[in-house]
């Protein structure tokens, strides 16, 4: 069964701190790893994504680190702000096969305290 | 502005009734998807469609049905066979070559 395991389920970080969320996958056919941010009552929004040919991708305060051999990837939120308080989902999929459907992790609820 | 519109935002239905959730996109995306989200959990794929008049079952298709008669529209019917239909339903679309899925704002279905 294709699975993506995400941890922790929740975390609390002080304003200005670093939030770190980890994901692990099993299917080596996955070649696309996005992160989504979701606010209560809203649909998820794409935050940042990475392909397995690079080990790190940074966009503003958000960085994805990717370890292909360990089949793990993580999201780092630098200088966390109260507005970052949301639920974050990692996902994995294949761009060529299987209709681009994504398999999602269970989500991490992040609370940034002012 | 381009995007995905889901309606209604909230839906209440009696147990045993079928209900259809609407999803419309004006992004000219080929692929469309339906996900189910339960409280504190991730998204689970119900159905997806890569092209008009074609769709495939996802991981939890039992008790659901879809149609894709137009590129812009991908309605989801929750049938009486779905044993626990109360959930938050999310529709998404993507360009097949990029995988970047855009989500709608969701429909919260409550069955009483």
Notes on the structure:
The complex is a heterodimer of chains A (114) and B (112). Chain A is mainly beta. Chain A is built from no helices and eleven strands. Chain A has strands at residues 4-7, 10-14, 19-25, 33-38, 45-50, 56-59, 62-67, 72-77, 86-93, 102-104, 108-113. In chain A, β4 (33-38) and β5 (45-50) form a beta hairpin. Chain A starts with a strand and ends with a strand. Helix content of chain B is 0%, strand content 51%. Chain B contains no helices and eleven strands. Chain B has strands spanning 4-7, 10-13, 19-25, 31-37, 43-51, 54-57, 64-66, 76-78, 87-94, 101-103, 107-111. In chain B, strands 2, 4, 5, 6, 9, 10 and 11 form a seven-stranded mixed beta sheet that branches. In chain B, strands 1-3-8-7 form a four-stranded antiparallel beta sheet, with no helix packed on it. Chain B is globular and about 40 Å long. Chain B starts with a strand and ends with a strand. Classes of the chains: A mainly beta (114), B mainly beta (112).
């Amino acid at each position: 069964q294709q699975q993506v395991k995400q941890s922790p389920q929740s975390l609390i970080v002080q304003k200005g701190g670093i939030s770190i969320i980890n994901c692990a996958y099993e299917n080596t056919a996955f070649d696309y790893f996005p992160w989504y941010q979701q606010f209560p009552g809203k649909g998820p929004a794409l935050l940042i994504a990475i392909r397995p040919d690079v080990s790190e991708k940074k966009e503003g305060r958000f960085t994805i680190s990717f370890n292909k051999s360990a089949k793990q990837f993580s999201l780092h939120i630098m200088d966390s702000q109260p507005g970052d308080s949301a639920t974050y989902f990692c996902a994995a999929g294949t761009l060529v096969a299987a209709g681009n459907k994504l398999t999602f992790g269970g989500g991490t609820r992040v609370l940034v305290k002012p | 502005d381009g995007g995905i519109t889901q309606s209604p935002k909230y839906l209440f239905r009696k147990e045993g009734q079928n209900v259809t959730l609407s999803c419309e996109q004006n992004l000219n995306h080929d692929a469309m998807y339906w996900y189910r989200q339960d409280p504190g959990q991730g998204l689970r794929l119900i159905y997806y469609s890569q092209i008009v008049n074609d769709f495939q079952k996802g991981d939890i298709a039992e008790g659901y049905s879809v149609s894709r008669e137009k590129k812009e529209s991908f309605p989801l019917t929750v049938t009486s066979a779905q044993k626990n239909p109360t959930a938050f339903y999310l529709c998404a679309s993507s360009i097949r070559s990029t995988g970047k899925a855009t989500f709608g704002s969701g429909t919260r279905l409550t069955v009483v």
